[in-house]
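On clarity, I found the account of how folds are encoded harder to follow than it need be. What matters is that the chain and its backbone geometry are given together, residue for residue. I therefore recommend that a typical entry be quoted early in the introduction. An entry of this sort, consisting of the sequence and the corresponding backbone structure tokens, reads as follows:
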Amino acid sequence: MRFIDTTDGSRIAVEIHDSPGAVPVVVVPGGPCRDPAYLGDLAGLARTRPLVILHPRGTPASGGLSRGWWTDADDLIQVADHLEAPAVDVIAHSAGTRLALAAAAQHPGRIRSLALVTPAAAWLTGTPHDGAALAAHRSEPEITRAFASMNGESPGDETTFQRALEAEAAAGYARWTPVERQHAGVGAMTWAASSAWFRDIPADAAARITASPLPPTFVLGGRDDLLSGVAPVRAYADALGAHLTLLDDCGHYPWIEQPAAFRAALGDWLARVSQ
């Protein structure tokens, strides 16, 4: 683990999975503010490109609380500065895709490419979430419980937040086997950190992002992702002018459920933008 001193006097942590002789890729986890342990080595992607995993403000290693994802986008640029890289390739997952897009919009030229994995998508275009249609194909009682929680009241304290996380965990996967159950418990997050992620966001953030000259962008989704949905992800990719790939039999964590397909898709993308 390394720590970077930021311009506002804070320190942010980065974790480096090294691979000699290649340009590093900066990885932004989701959650929001979930301990990046849940990413692992992204299905072995670290064996082909060094991964520099950002531990955002509000995660255990960096501490503190987020200033809001729009402002925390500056931390991604400070990681690039620390790497002495004029521009970096970025992989972002779920809620972390907001920070990655904000960095690209506010700092033109500093992000060389974006790979946005199972993004939190509906906010960008307003496309209705189609989780009900996806859930209709699932018979597990855990999915019924998860979907009811997702459509209930938003948690208002730490206790209800943790209960919601537990209830909704199964919705993140196309299957709910011991492998997925074990992964769902990796990487803690808190109500305070998650709530802070959404503070002080400009009302026109979505418009500013879609109007920006974004770098080459790839969106990778799962056809069984009840958390992000499918229709919002399609509209999101279209609004960003991004290349879209949807993986079959895959939910919100493709490196867990479809590791070979995930590794191939991201590896091909990174090889293309590195040429």
